[in-house]
Amino acid sequence: MSPSASKLAGPRFLFESLLACHSERSEESNHLIATLNSARQLPAGLMPGQPLTALAPMQDVTDLPFMRVAAHYGAPDYFFTEFFRVHGQSRPEKHILRSLVENKTGRPVFAQLIGEHVSDMVRTVKELLKYPIAGIDLNMGCPAPKIYKKNVGGGLLRDPAKIDGLLGAIRDAVPGLFTVKMRIGFDSTENYERILSLINKHSVDLLSVHGRTVKEGYRSDVHYDHIAIAARTVRCPVLANGNITSADKAAAVLAETGAAGVMVGRHAIRNPWIFRQCRERLVVERADPSALLGAANAVRSPRSTLSPAVFHPTLADVREYITRLYRETQTPDIPEKAHVAKMKKYLNFVGQSVDPEGKFLHEMRRAMTEAELFAVCDAHLLTEPARLFATEPYPGIIARPNCETPVETCSLDTVTA
Ligand SMILES: Cc1cc2nc3c(=O)[nH]c(=O)nc-3n(C[C@H](O)[C@H](O)[C@H](O)COP(=O)(O)O)c2cc1C
Question: Among residues 80, 180, 207, 236, which one has the fewest Cβ atoms lying within 10 Å of its Cβ?
Fold first, then answer.
């Protein structure tokens, strides 16, 4: 069993290995296995034994409608909610609770929290434990100045002593799975290894690492070497996050980092088939690595030649995705103009793979009504419906406001690619 596979098996694997030394299991030991299973075992992925996939938490994006859409095209193994804000007067936000209570995707959902005060966090954890959650996730990465200046999200990374207290208190309050999502530092990586040792100290069950510092925002290359350090250092499985643009890129990052899985954010908005493609890609790789020769080059090319075993959407498929997203995100109270504006934020990402000149993006941004928006979609997606949607974003085609824009909040208004 590979190191990441044994981490995935978790405490149950270790305990069963010990039991294997004895000829028969007592009732007591069976009971202990059952308890470990239910309390601290990560939920199985859709393809047990394969690397995990997760949809990254994204404010204004990973709500119930988007989770439904993602599940339709091939669900990730795990979902994470947008963050619940925790402070003295906070109550879990109703619209985020919907993504737990009304979720029929069949996939586990981790509830993410952002906050700093132990008593408020513990109170909120206890409230959320009443809901159907897979576990509690702590946000230690949000790079928005409005957030980190309050010493929450990415701001916590400046203060390992505070992290120590917070992780300890949340660990004590969570009988089941406790997960953390973090960046590799605030303005440098000087605290990184110390924080990783706190992840071990407090028996965190799953760690997602976005391989950039808070100050790097979304601009820099992703430091996959630092994700590899986490995968080597912590006892729990690690999800590699940051610029996972395709199934080929996922495979390359898994090989480089030794992570147990990948977490995908913006490129799942662009390409909701990405989780299915990852599963298909990784199964093929395991069965016949030669079938995927050249994949490393393919990562650099928008027109990469994927194995036939991997689903590859056409422009007509993308047109259908846009209709589905429009329908799912429509509510009786949202005026048409506001709904079109919201759709344009998603389409900013989709447009990165429609045409190499960015004409779709240019025209889509000018649409004001539903009819105008879909007319642009039809012109660009149904003229050559069988043409393949580019696997990678076209070079130089940037969603706007672009990644040089200062990040004011973790939301679609400012964070793009
Ligand atoms: C619109 C948007 C909202 C985000 N909101 C959150 C959030 O609520 N919690 C969080 O931990 N990260 C949040 N992030 C960061 C993502 O989870 C992820 O770490 C980041 O986008 C890098 O991954 P990617 O390159 O796959 O997009 C957000 C990112 C975006 C683009």
Answer: 236
Task: Indicate which residue of 142, 236, 278, 377 is catalytic.
Answer: 142
Cβ neighbors of 189 (< 8 A, separation 6 or more) are: 213, 223, 226
Give residue ranges with CB within 6 A of ligand 1: 56-59, 61, 82-83, 112, 139, 141-142, 181, 210, 241-244, 264-267, 410-412, 415
Map tokens 């305990």 to a residue: 15
Q: In this structure, what DSSP letter does residue 292 have? A: G
Nearest to 140 by CA among 189, 181, 186: 181
Ligand 1, atom 21, lies closest to the CA of 265
Rounded to whole angstroms, what are the CA distances from 141 to 171, 196, 339? 19, 14, 29
Written as six digits, the tokens of 115 are 């906050």
Contact 207, 241 (CB under 8 A): no
Compute CA distances 34 → 16, 140, 331, whole Å: 11, 32, 43
CA nearest to 244, candidates 217, 215, 224, 229: 224
Calpha distance 211→310 (Å, rounded): 27
pTM of the prediction? 0.89
- The question of whether 403 is a catalytic residue gets the answer no
Nearest Cα neighbor of 32 from 14, 9, 49 is 14
Check residue 219 and give its pLDDT: 86
> Using CA atoms, how far apart are residues 91 and 83, in angstroms rounded to an integer?
12
Q: Where is pLDDT greater, at 4 or 329?
A: 329
Residues 223-264 have pLDDT tens digits of 999 999 999 999 999 999 999 999 999 999 999 999 999 999
- Taking CA atoms only, the protein residue closest to ligand 1 atom 30 is 58
